[in-house]
Amino acid sequence: MNIILFGPPGAGKGTQAKFLIEKFKIIQISTGDILREEVKLKTDLGISAKNIMDNGDLVPDEIIMSIVEKRLAEPDCKKGFILDGFPRTLNQALELEKILKVQNSEINKIIFIDVDEDILIERITTRALETSNIREDDNSTILKNRIKIYKKDTKPVLDFYKNMKKLVTVNGMMSIEDVSKAIVKLLWFI
Ligand code: ADP
Hints:
Layout: E1 2-6, H1 13-24, E2 27-30, H2 31-41, H3 44-54, H4 61-72, E3 81-84, H5 90-102, E4 109-114, H6 117-129, H7 140-154, H8 156-163, E5 167-171, H9 176-187
Parallel strand pairs: 1-3, 1-4, 2-3, 4-5
Helix pairs in contact: 1-9, 2-3, 4-5, 6-7
């Protein structure tokens, strides 16, 4: 089972991914987590990505695709994976199709976690206030930029998968447990 968790910043993709990897014993590939690790290790990639991430902009597709291509080639992906935070542009989605085709694999479903914009802002502001978990990209100016970019560059990805009849939507404004239950129900048929 290969799935994409899709949604705006603060939709709860990371939280739901953690639940799903336990439940279905598949792995999670989060481009955001991989990038943050590179930043922490101060690799060349991390150094060039840091400012872009801190501003809430998108890291160039070529960098993202090289990360994802390398990760998808690892044997643990064979049993299934959850993509979280990727694809974030139409070009990334098209490139992903090419990689999977070569591997004789495909995306089974894309799960859109739908959350209203005012709720997103509230959630991320709260996350930024939790001192134990400060992310430099969680402040309100940058958040507005991230939401703007989401609408402009990332939302078109939804239509791409909708046309392929792979898109399913869950209401991301329910409790964490109820969102998890709704996702499990949707995946039952794969
Ligand atoms: P979110 O809080 O929206 O889940 P992520 O942790 O997925 O954020 O990503 C953090 C930052 O890393 C993004 O704002 C962006 O700068 C960069 N990033 C992560 N994934 C991608 C991607 N697929 N394409 C471009 N940039 C990305």
